[in-house]
Design brief:
Elements: H1 6-9, H2 13-25, H3 35-49, E1 59-65, E2 68-74, E3 78-85, H4 94-109, E4 112-119, H5 125-133, E5 137-139, H6 141-148, H7 157-173, H8 187-206, E6 218-222, E7 229-233, E8 237-239, E9 242-251, E10 256-264, H9 270-284, E11 302-309, H10 317-332
Parallel strand pairs: 3-4, 4-5
Antiparallel strand pairs: 1-2, 2-3, 6-7, 7-9, 8-9, 9-10, 10-11
Helix pairs in contact: 6-7, 7-8
Length: 336
């Protein structure tokens, strides 16, 4: 049935906070007559705790304790804190501060702490690993889909809307597979492409085609006065005593994706930028890259020295991955 979707209207994290709090609350045995939602809620809690055989009887769930999105007590034994994200990222010492407050609460009340970071849009492997290093279990959109689709027979309208919204996000994240040019204007499609790019770069490293430290690769949204861009950062390269790195910048608000080189610690040092530009110009023709200088060099800690390709996604997906491979091989084998 064609109808408005609650979660396509309420896109902010507060709407998702409300849904998750609503769903988790059904796990308490006072709602056992709502058998299907009660079972789903208990399965969700079991996934967060990591214990599929747990007998759940008593659950209390609330929001904004110590500014934490969602807090849950289970059987007066477990204390779960959930940092809930849709599209934004964590900031500062947010996770460490929340965990410390929660651990103090657990010590005072003889509870076992479980920390969860839940996000319904895609994240880089680098970000996921950093979240897990802080002691949080990372729950992705795919984790939720895997669980919720097992309960897709539930006829509750709120649950149906949430599940359909997750499916829609998943479909958009795969749009680049059938419409590659969609990455130029669709944020979610570009995130899907970047996730596949991570895998491709890992394959190149495993085959010894490239030599860089792929663990330094990362991607995410960068805000700026021009509306921001979705960037993919590769590993750092050194040449002639200068450190620099390749980056893909997707200005999806303008339909422009370019591959360029940024120089580290370039503030007030234009010589570094010109040196890198000259090195890349000398090497670019071997790999069919026409290296260009930006219209104007701008001061900054990390400044753009050269544009490798103005429209890195102008062709097919296969062209894109081949350009990336050639770019990284070129940087691995620079002649100064």
């Amino acid at each position: 049935m064609n109808k408005p979707n609650l979660f396509e209207i309420g896109t902010k994290e507060l709407a998702q906070d409300a849904f998750l709090t609503w769903l988790i609350s059904y796990a308490d045995n006072q709602y056992i007559e709502h058998k299907e939602l009660n079972t789903l809620a208990k399965d969700f809690i079991k996934m967060m705790i990591g214990n599929n055989s747990l007998n759940i009887e008593k659950v209390y769930c609330w929001r904004q304790w110590e500014k934490i999105d969602i807090s849950v007590t289970v059987n007066d034994k477990y204390f779960i804190i959930i940092e809930d994200k849709t599209g934004t990222n964590r900031h500062g010492n947010q996770l460490a501060n929340y965990k410390e407050k929660a651990q103090n609460h657990c010590n005072e009340n003889n509870l076992e702490l479980v920390c969860v970071f839940l996000k319904t849009r895609d994240d880089s492997t680098y970000t996921i690993n950093s979240v897990e290093r802080e002691g949080y279990k990372y729950i992705s959109r795919n984790d939720l889909l895997s669980l919720f689709e097992k309960h897709s027979h539930i006829k509750n309208d709120i649950f149906i809307d949430y599940l359909e919204n997750l499916k829609n996000i998943e479909q958009q994240s795969k749009l680049y597979m059938t419409d590659f040019q969609s990455v130029k204007w669709n944020y979610l499609s570009c995130c899907g492409l970047y996730k596949e790019l991570e895998k491709k770069v890992t394959e190149l490293a495993e085959k010894k085609i490239i030599k860089g430290d792929i663990n330094r690769c990362n991607w995410g949204y960068v805000p700026n006065q021009n509306g921001g861009f979705l960037g993919f950062w590769f590993y750092t390269v050194s040449a002639d005593g200068i450190e620099f790195y390749p980056i893909i910048e997707n200005y999806y608000n303008h339909g422009n994706i370019r591959a360029s080189i940024k120089v580290l610690y370039a503030k007030d040092n234009l010589d570094k930028l010109y040196k890198v530009l000259n090195i890349l110009t000398k090497n670019g023709s071997k790999y069919n890259f026409e290296i260009k200088k930006p219209a104007k060099y701008k001061k900054g800690e990390n400044a753009t020295a050269a544009i490798i390709k103005d429209d890195i996604c102008g062709g097919t997906k296969e062209d894109f991955f081949k350009d990336i491979e050639n770019m990284l091989v070129m940087l691995d084998n620079l002649e100064i």
